[in-house]
Write a structure and sequence with these properties.
Number of strands of chain A: 0
Largest sheet of chain B: none
Oligomer: heterodimer
Distance between the termini of chain A: 8 Å
Shape of chain B: elongated
Number of helices of chain A: 13
Number of helices of chain B: 11
Radius of gyration of chain A: 24 Å
Helix content of chain B: over 70%
Order of helices and strands of chain B: HHHHHHHHHHH
Largest interface: A-B, 47 and 43 residues
Strand content of chain A: under 5%
Order of helices and strands of chain A: HHHHHHHHHHHHH
Chain lengths: 307, 284
């Protein structure tokens, strides 16, 4: 068991390094330097700039230096904001993005889980159809449409909630969290409904009912454990999607998180920032996938003995 | 052969019995027709700017109003449908070709080939796909064909996994083992025994990939990294709509509505197709 987990970790580390290398060379293939868009600078200044940012060294030397720094957690300086390092920017933006993601997942699990369980228990009734139709809308409605519509309705029309910002006005975290979490609430609702339906059809549930347990106890004490397994294994990969969603949500709501930094870096051609965040996001996603693999492994005895 | 055609006939019957899927299919047909006929049925030019007619609310002349530059929104949505649907189909096609070949080869040969190929898929999964595409768009410029390729190049991963799983199951069934024992060549094996049996899941997953691809394109266009003006997709229309939604809400609402309805139709149709082709699931 421990061996399997160690093996997974042993695979994850080279994967991160390979991703970092590919990204490094891809970014270096980009036409033009990071300082091209500015006003024309004298050649000597350009030369000095290149020297400061280690761009005059041969590519392989640059690569070696970058990777050596990377292993020590140093993502290099930002091209766009002189004097700020990429590492510093990542750790400024990350807590904001994580907080946003946390509220979004919380919202998704509470609303989605409740709706899904209700739909499974009250199968083929109005209480099944209505939440499932809303879930379908939630899956189809893209984040970049839902966000503005919520802003339009609750922010501008009803003037109930702030339309942008983070930590500046009371209630300004509500709309971004709902916007980011909505699609996940919908997925979780569908997954938990499916999982619950399957579990409710099992023999041990029939046994529990035959024992004369009241229905709510059958659900809470017996069905829930098995029924929510698909939701747990969904959460790891969902992190990857959350990161993409954070790009949109942070852009719409002007939130100073890592997602908006990334989109800005893409526009500004801030290559070191793009490079650094890409590697960082990749490592984050690989880590969460690893985590959910391990949890699923621990939860499923059959997979455990096979592995 | 007879039995196989009746399998598809059965599936077709089940599909027709599913009202949501039929509705989705009809909406899709209408949309595709409108998109193809856009140059002939669009009431106005999609790119002609007339600032005197800027931001007109919907009226009998401009069915859905005009944008801030005086361009007819209805015509722009029609032309946007061409771009958005084309991205959906082309990029899915790219994903399909790569994913199916990858999955068949990995699943069929198994062993070391399989583990190396699937490890590569894992590595690519590790590269967060949205970032990967943004990276490509930044590095190589915002080119529509690159967009097709880039989206296709990330969406094949799940397809490869699904196909591989199917092939692994089929590979160990008696008729395949029998064919192997008789010395059927690898190519014949794919063509006659494996491919026809994974067609169902491929069709289903392809249909369900189209809305994902369209979402991805709209997402990139929304961020300003996808389709560039004067061309417009539904994603760019939504982007402009958001910019001016406070005063001119119709600029957000109509493109958004069109896009959502399309995604709805595609998902319902795909779900219906899945239920029709896999009766085991649909009985639930």
């Amino acid at each position: 068991m421990l061996l399997v987990i160690l093996k997974r970790i042993a695979i994850a580390i080279p994967v991160i390094l390979i991703v970092a290398s590919i990204t490094f060379f891809l970014v270096r293939m980009a036409p033009g330097g990071p300082f091209d868009a500015e006003k024309v600078v004298p050649p000597q200044v350009m030369k000095n700039l290149n020297a400061v940012y280690n761009l005059d060294a041969p590519l392989l030397v640059q690569y070696k230096d970058y990777m050596l720094n990377l292993v020590q957690g140093d993502f290099g300086p930002s091209f766009r904001y002189p004097g700020r390092s990429v590492t510093e920017m990542i750790f400024t933006g990350l807590p904001v993005t994580l907080e946003l993601a946390f509220y979004a997942i919380l919202f998704a699990m509470i609303i989605g889980g409740f709706a899904g369980i209700l739909a499974a228990v009250k199968r083929n009734t109005v209480l099944d159809y209505i939440p499932m139709t809303i879930a379908m809308i939630g899956i189809c409605m893209p984040t970049f449409l839902l966000g503005p519509l919520l802003v339009l309705f609750f922010g501008i029309h009803l003037e109930l909630l702030p339309v942008s910002g983070w930590d500046s006005l009371s209630g300004d975290k509500i709309l971004p969290s709902i916007t980011l979490g909505a699609a996940y609430a919908a997925y979780i609702a569908r997954l938990s409904r499916g999982g619950m339906l399957e579990t409710l059809g099992q023999d041990y549930i029939r046994t529990a009912r035959a024992k004369g347990l009241p229905e709510y106890q059958v659900i809470l004490r017996h069905a829930l454990q098995g029924g929510l397994v698909p939701v747990v294994s969904f959460l790891g990969p969902a992190i990857a999607g959350l990161i993409g969603g954070s790009f949109v949500v942070e852009t719409i709501f002007q939130i100073p998180g890592l997602g908006r930094f990334y989109v800005e870096a893409a526009f500004n051609r801030d290559y070191t920032m793009i490079l650094g965040t890409t590697i960082f996001f990749s490592a984050l996603i690989i880590f969460f996938n690893l985590l959910s693999d391990i949890v699923v492994l621990l939860m499923n005895p059959r997979a455990r003995s096979e592995a | 052969m007879n039995q196989q055609s009746s399998l598809w006939e059965d599936a077709w019957r089940r599909l027709l019995a599913n009202k949501a899927a039929v509705g989705g299919g009809i909406i899709l047909c209408i949309l595709i027709t409108l998109a193809i006929l856009a140059p002939w049925i669009a009431p106005h030019s999609y790119s002609y700017q007339n600032l005197d007619l800027g931001a007109q609310p919907p009226s009998s002349i401009f069915l859905l109003g005009t944008d801030t530059l005086g361009r007819d929104l209805f015509s722009r949505i029609l032309y946007g449908a061409r771009v958005s649907l084309m991205v959906g189909f082309v990029a899915t096609g790219v994903a399909l070709v790569i994913g199916v070949s990858w999955g068949i080869i990995a699943g069929y040969f198994g062993g070391r080939v399989d583990s190396i190929m699937m490890r590569i898929v894992d590595v690519l999964y590790g590269l967060p796909f949205i970032i990967f595409i943004i990276l490509l768009m930044v590095i190589f410029g915002r080119n529509i064909w690159l967009l097709f390729g880039a989206i296709g190049a990330v969406e094949w991963l799940t397809m490869a996994r699904i196909v591989r799983g199917q092939v692994l199951t089929i590979k160990n069934q008696e008729y395949v083992l029998a064919a192997q024992a008789m010395g059927v060549s690898n190519f014949q094996m794919f063509r006659k025994h494996i491919f026809p049996n994974i067609l169902g899941p491929i069709a289903v997953y392809a249909t369900l990939t189209i809305p994902q691809v369209m979402l991805l394109e709209a997402f990139l266009s929304f961020l300003g990294l996808g389709i560039q003006p004067p061309m417009s997709s539904w994603g760019t229309l939504i982007r402009y709509g958001v910019e001016s939604m406070e005063e001119y809400s119709w600029l957000l609402i109509y493109p958004g509505l069109t896009f959502t309805i399309t995604l709805f139709a595609l998902n319902f149709f795909g779900d219906g197709l899945r239920d029709a082709l896999d009766p085991k699931i649909s009985s639930d």
